[in-house]
Amino acid sequence: MPPYARISALAALTLGLLAGLGTRPAPARQPSPAGQAAAAGHPRPAFHADRTYDAVAAPVRLRIPALHVDSKVQRLGLRTDGTIAVPDRTDVAGWYDQGPRPGQPGPAVILGHVDSTTGPGIFIGLAAVQPGATVRIDRSDGTYAAFRITHVSRVPKVEFPTDVVYAPTLDPTLRLVTCGGSFDRARGSYRDNVIAFADPA
Amino acid sequence: MWKRGKGQLWRALPILCTGLLFLMPVHPRVPVAHTALAPADLAIRFEALLGQHSVLAADLMRSRIRGDDDFVQAANTALGRNTKDMTDLVGQLFGTGTAEKFSPLWSEHIVELFAYAGALAARDDTAKGDALHELTEYEVELGDFFAGASQGRLRPAAARQAVVAHVGHLTGQADAYAAGDYATADDLYRMGYQHTYDLGLTLAEALLPAADAATLREPLWRLRSQLGRLLAEHAVLVEDLTRAAVTETPDFAASGNMINGNTRDLAAAMDTLFGPAAARQFQALWADHVEQLVAYAQGHQDTASTAMAGIERRLGAFLSGATGERIGTAALTAALQKHDMMLMRHADAYAAKDYATAHDVAYQTYQEMFDLARTMADAFGASVAAKLPRGGAQTGHGGMAAIVSSLPGSSSSGPGR
């Protein structure tokens, strides 16, 4: 059972214990020392909580100088079978838009094809990219996020590490994903995925 | 440490004795509790206690600078409790021998930080220089201690650098606070908290067996730790702001900016988990929550209490929905009610100058928020995991199969983290 599924059942129980009986105790309903201390009669400085949320803008362009990659970025969602959609073109990268945007807390995921039926795709060189290589992602508001590759892994698709690639943390990381390994002609699909992990530069 | 700056330290002795008394039971033997908690669970609690140490030490230093001796005494008692709790965890995580060395070293730097704040209060540059000298010696000692305990996995230079940064944040915020530069003081207060909290992860990764250290890097454990850091910090900063509101200290505006920073970080975490629309909705509710707590401290108890009850219900419903109702609205509303009640009790105790109670409640509130964050992280994580893509990506058509299969890494390797 995945870790998230194992713990979810315990969550409600734990929260119940944390909340005790869930009733509001009485003391603060009485005239309080805080109120008495504040009763001097003169105006208090106001506190205004920040209500403006500035979301990190969506990615529009991907650049990886070491791989000679300079591409627009397409938005990607999920297919009806729950698998991730892939870019329409083999020379264009795609960002999984149900996850974090590059540079905000969390793992942003960008996909690219390794090849077409006749030639190389945008991520043909991803399996050979060296740790330390830089990745720059331009965003729709003119800002950018820079990352540095830390390591590259190849995994069988049937054992794809969904948790490691997509599961949320608040670390502002990037994962680049493509195909690799041997090609299964019967299925018309590579057997493996190549995943490059990157941290903020 | 007693060679120089004796005057400052002798003046501090009665106050520091209170904190040291808290540590007495751990000498000469550090009791090691045997619990069922996994090492990773203990490690993230260690992170939380380190973060708590940073804010308690900063509060101690600030109250010393203000000359608020009653508050100093209560803050020092809380620091002693924090050191004892940390020492217990160090014993469980890294062994009794390590804990026995840790406790006096850790306590020593608190004494020196206090001496530093006393020197600032007295505008005594000589005493300040003496305290800095002692802190510098301590940084080397503690860094070497951590490096030694890691058996080579943490380089002495890296360990010292981490300790230097910790001390630098605390002395820096004290310098700025004494100079009336509250914006800088509060920036360093938050940076110090975040750095010291994360130092717990660095130490745990270095000192724990490799398998346990790897567990701490798993997404679920990272989320537990990170949400714990933000929500526990929320409690700390609300308390800081309500204290400033009660006594109308000049750092009120800067303190307000500080909690707004935390609120933005929490909203960003909600964005990561559930998208920007959810983040905006959360931030509006959370802003109401903080504003009403401040209103309570400023004398609007009735209206604030009524408003808070409504906010608790709306926030409970929102968070329950975010968890995919893995946690019910009623349970979450009750947890938020408890949180608000504790923060109001803190404000009341502080206003009544019952600093011992105020610190006791604050200590409990911090732990409650950390525990609540862990529960929320689990439920949020499960909610998000249910919607993640299934399987690998079909990102190839085979036209370059001969070349692709010969690329580096032709033998499959694991994901690596």
UniProtKB/TrEMBL annotation, chain A:
<dbReference type="InterPro" id="IPR042001">
    <property type="entry name" value="Sortase_F"/>
</dbReference>
<keyword id="KW-0378">Hydrolase</keyword>
<keyword id="KW-0732">Signal</keyword>
<dbReference type="Pfam" id="PF04203">
    <property type="entry name" value="Sortase"/>
</dbReference>
<dbReference type="InterPro" id="IPR023365">
    <property type="entry name" value="Sortase_dom-sf"/>
</dbReference>
<protein>
    <recommendedName>
        <fullName>Class F sortase</fullName>
    </recommendedName>
</protein>
<dbReference type="GO" id="GO:0016787">
    <property type="term" value="F:hydrolase activity"/>
</dbReference>
<feature type="region of interest" description="Disordered">
    <location>
        <begin position="24"/>
        <end position="44"/>
    </location>
</feature>
<dbReference type="InterPro" id="IPR005754">
    <property type="entry name" value="Sortase"/>
</dbReference>
<feature type="signal peptide">
    <location>
        <begin position="1"/>
        <end position="28"/>
    </location>
</feature>
UniProtKB/TrEMBL annotation, chain B:
<protein>
    <recommendedName>
        <fullName>Copper amine oxidase</fullName>
    </recommendedName>
</protein>
